[in-house]
Design a protein that fits this description.
228 residues; six-stranded mixed beta sheet; 6 helices; binds adenosine-5'-triphosphate
């Protein structure tokens, strides 16, 4: 089940030759369960670092990250990525080329019984509008179809939170626009809490219930886009 996300006064940074280089500072936001939040900002402002910290791949130097009533990260507490119930759809997370679409979607379900896997895969393929694509391999699918299968794979294990890092950046303009609308509809149909990172303002406005603008590691606003 989806959960609410709460980030309080987060500080993140990387160890360098001259000590800690802080890249995110005093960063707070909250997102209700089922809502889509979007971090918008120029290259290098710290968007990906925030997502990596939520997923459990970066230590938290100050502040805390909570998902529902679970404390994921603070300077004292660290829940490993596999126990966070956080799903990811990152630009570089391509599908496994040697596996069919159905096997790709089933990847995160491999500890479940076969019947349950088959049922969930069919549900997910239907949810992303590709009910008959299960036997196809990635190279037999268009770029937009591949991203929809990647979304089905990310949603299949029912993450409490889904992170999307520039998921459309490899697609051409018209596919990208269409998929932005479709992905919002799919996430809403699934009731999925999600955080999207992009530097495309139009994409943020179409997708998000809350948009935050990041500059130099700080969040300057966190509010609903004009259409809401
Ligand atoms: N592994 C690392 N070690 C040291 N510094 C890093 C590391 N990863 C990122 N940084 C630095 O942290 C800052 C924020 O990077 P981050 O990737 O979070 O930005 P971003 O907003 O996601 O950028 P983009 O839109 O280009 O992906 C940058 O100055 C970057 O150089």
């Amino acid at each position: 089940m989806s959960a609410a996300l709460s980030i309080e006064k987060l500080r993140l940074g990387y160890e360098g030759p001259r000590g800690l280089h802080t890249v995110v500072e005093d960063f707070s936001l909250s997102l209700e369960a089922g809502d889509i939040g979007c971090l918008l900002g120029p290259s290098g402002c710290g968007k990906t670092t925030v997502l990596r910290a939520i997923a459990g791949f970066e230590p938290v130097r100050a502040g805390r990250i909570r998902l529902g009533n679970v404390l994921l990260s603070s300077p004292e507490v660290y829940l490993p990525p596999e126990r966070r119930r956080v799903g990811m759809m990152f630009q570089e997370y391509a599908l496994f080329p040697h596996l069919s679409a159905a096997r790709n979607v089933a990847f995160g379900l491999r500890h479940q019984p076969h019947d349950a896997q088959r049922k969930r895969v069919a549900e997910m393929l239907a949810l992303v509008g590709l009910p008959d694509a299960g036997e196809r391999h990635p190279h037999q699918l268009s770029g937009g179809q591949q991203q929809r299968i990647a979304l089905a794979r990310a949603l299949a294990p029912e993450p409490a939170l889904l992170l999307l890092d520039e998921p459309f950046s490899n697609l051409d303009g018209s596919t990208r626009e269409r998929l932005t609308v479709e992905v919002r509809e799919i996430l809403k149909a699934a009731g999925q809490t999600a955080v999207l990172v992009t530097h495309n303002e139009a994409e943020a406005q179409v997708m998000a219930d809350r948009i935050g603008v990041m500059h130099d590691g700080r969040l300057s606003r966190w509010e609903a886009p004009p259409r809401n």
